[in-house]
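Throughout our pipeline, every protein is held as a single compact record rather than as scattered files. The record that follows is passed on verbatim for readers who wish to inspect the format.
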Amino acid sequence: MTSADRSASRLETPAAMRVLAHPTRLRLLGLLRENGPQTAAQLGEVVDEAPGTISYHLSKLASIDLIEPAEPRSADQRERWWQAAAAETTWEPAEHLDDPAQRAASSALEKSIAQIYAARYSEYVDAMPTLPAEWVAAGTTGDRTLRLTLDELAAMRSELESLMHRWQEASARHDDADETTAPVALVYQAYRRP
């Protein structure tokens, strides 16, 4: 099954969640999704790790079917090309609350992702002075504390996911050569405060 055949990979086991919870692996998977097929050497230049280290992390991602071999894009037969197996990875934390091992693995993955979100936003804040003012003005961030019922929170989740998918379709209509577009991070969260 190629990445074109699947839009999402679903994590079911604590072992798979622990594999993905590693920050370097999260970054590699993100780079393959954003930039398409690449080799360990190419990824190593971006991540600043040795190709051997990158190859190890790629093999771990392949072991849980998050990435797969890609068609070579050069004549060098020694190069191994990789691509993301799906456009996104999902799991349902609520399904893992009753089992301590599953809960710990899900929690570790959630925390690793939160750290990446925080680091990316910090990079954006640092880069703001170098970005075109109209791009900064078009972006947004904010938070609200809402008082909702369980059903209302579930409905808001559904609406947010629908909104994200609509804009994901718009994104898919643009190619890298379109100079009027730029990568845009979309992060949303809605959860009951403890």
Residues 1-5 have pLDDT under 50 and may be disordered. The chain is about 50% helix and 10% strand.
